[in-house]
Amino acid sequence: MKRFLGGLLVFCMVLGLLVTLPVSAVAATANTTLLANSFGATFAIKADGTLWTWGSNSEGQLGIGAANDTRAPVKIMDNVRSITSYERSIFAIKTDGSLWAWGENRFGRLGIGATNNGYSPVKVLDNVVSFHCEGSNTFAITSDNSLWIWGSNGSG
Questions:
Q1: Domain-wise residue ranges, the chain
Q2: What are the tens digits of pLDDT across the range 103-128?
Q3: Which of 114, 70, 68, 108 is nearest to 89 (CA)?
Q4: For the chain, what percent of residues have pLDDT higher than 90?
């Protein structure tokens, strides 16, 4: 029953894409293991670990190198294990444990060494086992149990 419900959920998600996206975008969702959406930007990790994106790109959240919107899927990374977003800030963990970030960089929450938006994925940290972005800060735990925090330091 659990497998049926999971398949039904994916089917409903794909059906929704069929209504709103061009045929080429639907092709990118074939063999998809994970779909995510953030403020009109859509991300799909295919079974082979490739990360595809399309949609709204006002803050560089698609990670395609510019702020252009795109209706056609664009491959931006290989070997992706997971993807998470907070508003228009996007984070991906690759299969080697590296954390990558791009998009809106309010208060430096991407951890890329600047506060300007990132229009392409930038490697932030290695050996990440868990991370969370909320508000103006991002938190990561690495495989040696170190806690890393970056972003706003408005309250010390």
A1: 2-151
A2: 999 899 999 988 999 999 999 999 99
A3: 108
A4: 60
Give the torsion sign (CA, 136, 142, 145, 146): negative
CA 122 to chain centre: 12
Report CA Rg, the chain: 16
Q: If we measure between CA atoms, which residue out of 80, 113, 122 comes closest to residue 97?
A: 80
Task: Give buried/exposed letters for 128-144 (b at 16+ CB in 10 A, else e).
Answer: beebebeebbbebebee
**27-36, 88-97, 104-113, 130-139: the lowest-pLDDT one:** 27-36
Q: Right CATH number for 2-151 from 2.130.10.30, 3.40.50.2000, 2.60.40.10, 1.20.1250.20? A: 2.130.10.30
In this prediction the pTM is 0.78
CA gap 121, 139 in Å, rounded? 18
